[in-house]
Structure formats: C-alpha cells, structure tokens
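Predicting holo structure, flavin-adenine dinucleotide bound.
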Amino acid sequence: MNNQYDAIIIGAGVIGACVAFELSKKGYKTISIDKGPEAGYGSTSGSCAIIRTYYSAYETCALAYEGWFYWKDWANYLGADDEQGLIKYNDTGCLVIKTPHNKFLEEACATMDRIGCPYDHIAAEDIASKLPGADIRKFEPAKLITDEAFGELTGGEVSGAVLFHAGGYISDPKLSAHKAQRAAEAIGAEFMFKAEITEIRQQDNRVAGITLSDGTQIDAKIVVNVAGPHSSILN
Ligand SMILES: Cc1cc2nc3c(=O)[nH]c(=O)nc-3n(C[C@H](O)[C@H](O)[C@H](O)COP(=O)(O)OP(=O)(O)OC[C@H]3O[C@@H](n4cnc5c(N)ncnc54)[C@H](O)[C@@H]3O)c2cc1C
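Done. Tokens:
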C-alpha cells in the first residue's frame, strides 16, 4: 500500500474529517485512519456542542470566529448528502456571567474588539430578559460539592454579563464529523476505521508514513496528526 496517497490524516473527529475535506478540495489524495468504528467517536462525541468565540488566546478566538461562519452555513459548506441526516446549528448567542475568576471578561472583550466579533455588556438586572429564569444572586467563589458552604449565597448580585452574539450550539457533534466524512468521500477521500496507528515513520529526517498495529505500513509525504487528545502520545 505504498505511495498511493498524498496525505495520511490520523483521526476522523470533527477536525480530522474537515481536514480531509479541505485537503481533498485542494486535490490531495487523502486517507483518514481512525481506531474508532466511525467518524467522531473520540472527544468529538464528548463535546457539549457549544459553538463559541471567546477563548483565552487571540489566535483561538480568530479561528473560532471564522469557524462560526461555517457552522451557520454547514449544509452548504459541506454540500454532500449524509444518509444519517444533518445537524442543526442553533444560533442563540452565548451569555457569560462576569466574575472575578474570568476577570469580568475584560480580556475576552478586548480580544473580541481585535477580531471584530460583536458582543454586548448586559447589566445584572437585564440578564433575565436575555436568559429567562437566570438567578443573578451571588454564589461565588465556586466550591466543591463536599464543602459545607456549597450552594449557599455569598451576598449581593453578579456584576453583569456579556452576550457574545456569534455562538450557540449544534444538535449532534458526532454527526457533524460524519457529515464531513461523507463530504470528503464525495470528492475522493478515503477513510479506514478500526485501525490503530502505532508509529509515524521517518526517513531522511522527514516524515515517510505510518505503521498500523497489525504491522501494515502506508507511505505518504504528508501526515496530519489530528488524533485529538491522543495526538501528543503519537508524537
Ligand atoms: C467533555 C468535553 C466537552 C467538550 N465541550 C466542547 C464544546 O462544548 N464546544 C467545543 O467547541 N469543544 C468542546 N470540547 C472539545 C472538542 O470536543 C474537541 O476540541 C474536538 O472534538 C476535537 O476534535 P478532534 O477531531 O481534534 O479530536 P477527536 O474527536 O478526539 O478525534 C481524534 C480521533 O483520533 C482517533 N485516534 C487517536 N489516536 C489514534 C491512533 N493512534 N490511531 C488511529 N486513530 C486514533 C480517535 O479515535 C479519534 O476519533 C469538549 C471536549 C470534551 C472532552
């Protein structure tokens, strides 16, 4: 099985399946290899499905904001049909309470200003109009459930919130990876499941391919390691 592929993609989570799709669009012959039985069985399945833009690093926020536009147009972005159906993205926005722990979201808002991502400050008394039923009394600082004071009020109200408009949640993270797999396959990508990669091989000081646990070797000049939390183990 040598030299058939331009790129080997390790992992078929939501990131790996989309990498396969994007590389295939650029004309690369790819094979995605995953030890799971289907796309999205790794941490993608464990995700809470929240789509948000406010992270701690500028680059992450910029990437997430760009990603939000793809989620909003998921069906058109991927194009191909999926026999398992299509996810739904609910563009609710994300309301986050300001706390001393998150530095009252000042750094997050500064990054949103840098990337041009819209948000609004919400006064404590207006939170319920955005999130009906919200309890604005203070319980902070957070305590372990074993703490005697767990769940007790600590006095006063929260300091307000920020509503990040670009955000929401998707109906099914695993299905989103499956759909990306089908879209990649529709333009020539191959996927191999229940196959564990045990080694990224090198030759002449550059990547040469991978080896599976049964000893099978597949060669390619490009190996993309998107094995999620396991990627560092492989490295
Ligand atoms: C509890 C939890 C909640 C989360 N909530 C959110 C959220 O609300 N919003 C959000 O944006 N993110 C959330 N995340 C993070 C998000 O799930 C991940 O960032 C995302 O799913 C990563 O996708 P991935 O494709 O990189 O990795 P994965 O989905 O982990 O895919 C990696 C794939 O690599 C395969 N693999 C690993 N090692 C090998 C090997 N040696 N050989 C072959 N295959 C291998 C695995 O089987 C797996 O399918 C959450 C994560 C967790 C754990």
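The pocket of flavin-adenine dinucleotide is lined by residues 10-16, 33-36, 41-44, 46-50, 196-197, 226-230, 234 (CB under 6 Å).
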